[in-house]
Design brief:
globular, 5 helices, 3 strands, Zincin-like, mainly alpha, about 10% strand, 3-stranded mixed sheet
Length: about 150
């Protein structure tokens, strides 16, 4: 990933700048109309997603009200990740980019990632204001009864 580097410890402004730049790079390469096909392509693009990952529409590992969560396939990031997305969204594929981009930030940055940075990355990758991205995530969580998550 030439445009996305691991953030330095303890430097929130630098971390936000990295999230913003990485999201803008995704937007440049995938455009403003990111849908299911673009998300699948993005997940294979090592310029933007550091490690292998796939999406499964499966609720078994999600907490009540949780839309999505990422789990590693093994002890090393190189083994890849699975982004579990609530099956309700399998019929609402226009929602998947919002959910997947949020998780991709955590795949890329690991333990150094923050929720704020993930939201900034996702908003920039979709080319929308941060407030709109966050409100959409909250609406998606609310549709599952996860209002307390926002």
């Amino acid at each position: 990933m030439s445009e996305t580097v691991s953030p330095a410890y303890g430097q929130p402004e630098q971390n936000r700048s990295v999230a913003e730049a990485a999201g803008e790079a995704v937007f440049r390469d995938y455009g403003s109309q990111m849908g299911w096909g673009q998300v699948k392509a993005l997940m294979q693009d090592r310029r933007h997603v550091r490690f292998p990952c796939e999406i499964k529409f499966d609720v078994s590992l999600l907490l009540p009200g949780e839309c999505t969560h990422t789990f590693p396939n093994g002890s090393s990031p190189e083994h890849g990740y699975v982004i579990y997305i609530h099956p309700q969204f399998a019929t609402q594929l226009s929602s998947v980019p919002f959910l997947a981009l949020h998780q991709i930030w955590f795949i890329n940055q690991g333990r150094d990632a923050s929720l704020d940075e993930a939201e900034l990355f996702g908003s920039r990758a979709l080319g929308i204001p941060l407030e709109v991205y966050y409100a959409t995530l909250c609406d998606l969580a609310g549709s599952l009864g996860g209002d307390e998550l926002c």
